[in-house]
Amino acid sequence: MEPEQLYLIFGAVAALCAAVVIAMAVCVAFVMVMIGVVTISIIVGFSTGKVLSGLRALLVQLGVLAGAPVGAVAALVLAQTWPDLSHHGVILAMGGATGAFGGLVMALLANRVVQMAADRFPKLRLPRTTLIPSS
């Protein structure tokens, strides 16, 4: 084999390995964020003694986490559709902020539905615990 072909094969294998490592890192980061979101929601639920509070915390976190990237992508698509909007950094930040706000609004609407369900089932309670015991 020629050295140019070996360089090309080596470069392709290195790029594939880098893509796999990046994909694995993104998956690990996603799992860690989701574990953190669920853990915080469980802590909120147990510390208040109400399932609804933990569910509300989960919905708000998921709404913001899902809304920000969706808003940023929508803003970038809008920037590509209208070339006059050429400041991609500003568009990305504004899209992320408005997407996070939209996700928060959707989470609060979902929270209202959960509140209505909790009103129908008032016995749905968790044991109340304290995170820092008093001495």
TrEMBL record:
Keywords: Membrane, Transmembrane, Transmembrane helix
Protein name: Uncharacterized protein
Native organism taxonomy: Bacteria, Pseudomonadati, Verrucomicrobiota, Verrucomicrobiia, Verrucomicrobiales
Organism annotation: Roseimicrobium gellanilyticum
Transmembrane annotation, as ranges: 12-45, 57-78, 90-110
Superkingdom as given in the UniProt entry: Bacteria
